[in-house]
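Repro:
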Amino acid sequence: MVRATVDDPVPDAPFQGGAGASGQWLVETLDPEQRQVVLAPVGPVCVLAGAGTGKTRAITHRIGHLVESGVVPSGQVLAVTFTTRAAGELRGRLRTLGADGVQARTFHAAALRQLGYFWPRIAGAALPRLVESKIALVGRAASRARLAPSRTELRDLTAEIEWAKATLLTPEQYPAAAAAAGRETTHPPEVIARLYTAYEQAKREAGVLDFDDLLLLTAAVIEEHGWVAEELRSRYRHFVVDEYQDVNPLQQRLLDAWLGERDSICVVGDANQTIYSFTGASPRYLLDFPRRFPEAHVVRLVRDYRSTPQVVGLANRLVARVGTAGARGTPGGSSEPGAQGTHGVVGAALAVSRHEPPRLVAQRPDGPAPTFTEFDSEPEEAAATARRIHALLGSGVPASEIAVLYRVNAQSEAYETAIAAAGIPYLVRGGERFFERPEVAEAVQLLRAAARSADTDRPVGLVAEVTEVFAALGWRGGDPPNGSGAQRERWENLAALVRLAEALVAADPGATLDHFVADLADRAVHQHIPTVEGVMLVSLHAAKGLEWDAVFLVGLAEGTLPIIHAQTPAQVEEERRLLYVGVTRARERLALSWALARHEGGRRSRRPSRFLDGLAPRSASSAGRPAGGPAHPGVDGVGAQRSRGRAAVRCRVCERPLVGQAARAGRCDGCPANIDQALFERLRAWRSARAREQSAPAFVVFTDATLMAIAEHRPTSVAELVGIPGIGQTKLDRYGEDVLALVDGREPSG
């Protein structure tokens, strides 16, 4: 039995074609726009697919139709995407549609396969070893460059080298490009360029390649060796690219090498979900596709099968308000193609298509309206969220269908504490991979041993066999243990494996332990993980591509979303797209909330995110008080449109309106400061210690001006801290907890 996926109107039908079949059955269950995708002739096709509109269904049915109708041989199609999980889903759907000969891989997996084949014939030697992580080599290079970065700095430096390579920059080109892109770095660009050079040298000496080299070398051998290009292009004649808005210059170069002068390519993407520009991803390739291929068929998928009309309506209103709350009141977009905001994205699409920007059209029945709630403090917001989750569980919503989404990972702690206190199981996405968890790895090892065993005295049936094997791990069926600690998580992980065995038997009643072990091995390779019962805590960036019945968008305060270091219009609009991604993760229930202070009893100085202006109803509840009261000093109703977009920022000494740097400082230049001198001295002593640890000048940690601002503001939350000049995301991640501890009178943990 084939199960419908959440972004599709109906499940994929099983393969029912055959020799001479027309493939018409592959279009009969599609909506009109999806049919346009499937029936577009061989050649350039651009699919602009909104969230939840069944894009995977459309492109897999297109491939299946081309193969089944005999237009395209399955072995000549290469479909590429960005994650092993997405590639696995493509392969699974294509098998269902009878097109299992199609290659569906990530960019890196396709490049590794091709380079591994051609490299020995080019170099006369095996392909060098591939390193999965750059960090160790970057550390070695840092020592050569006479740098002593902390572990966090090492991670940030590695990410910066990855950005440079993804955008096809040499070390010599990096400083100017980093300055032009406004990169916030831990070290001066010239120092990072020197480290980049040392990294490349260390890599050559070790005789290894990184994942960026893999793409670059594959493109280079195709470009430089005609026989390689001819052989590859005769093998792959038709290309499909999923999530095309996330492609970076390096990936596009490889795609161009594969394609050559041909035009049989279908790309699918959503410019409103471009949220990874900081890694080098750019929507310009998606937007420029109709210019590059003037004969391209452009199709818009707008029927949303995922979310209720209430959720879809909020998503549409959020996108429609682009430009009304730009960076520091300056709406618009950037002229740099790779840094376009949503306004620039939509404008470019309109310039090509001459149509109005598409609005999602909900296909599901009505559901509850999204809620907007303001709280006095983060602990109150987290506790209220936990209570609402508990109520949802009591009404029958599975824990695995509930998610709490936040902007930065540091926000998860309050929710972990509150949810655990309520006895609710939860998982934090971004931890170790499912199949690498100790109990899962041990369980799989025992299953393999049982499959190899000659023992015939076993229970009858796959599920019974699996249950018996897991008994050796102390696992028992029935109800899970109480609480949400390690014991509960271990139980849930093993229960997820049992459910996989049950699903395998449902699909194939004759499935054996050997079949199950093979299925688990395939899932581990492609990170096709099972559903584990527990509320998901996940950042907005990591939530893309996922969806739940109920979603809580928390911490929606100015300075956190948009994050304070989003200064340009393009950066602010990317933050808006991040919220759009969060909203469109919800199928039925959506709750949006924010807190005015970090600690209970703390100063209520935060404001709700500018993105909520005009979206939240004027009757939204505030801090648990009856609806209709003012939710924030100076705000006439939660989310009500402020004059000129925002309430005026006033000097805390003389109350005069402030603009520019004075607004960020919260005080006129001429007004007296109120610096906590003892705190300032503690901050200076801490800064000196950190600078010694890093073998760097003190100003690299924080300037005196920033320390004085901290001592004057005495921030008690992340949102307040990032509002201080000189504190961006990098320094927030590295020093934020230390600074907040010092302000609170505690010793820093690090």
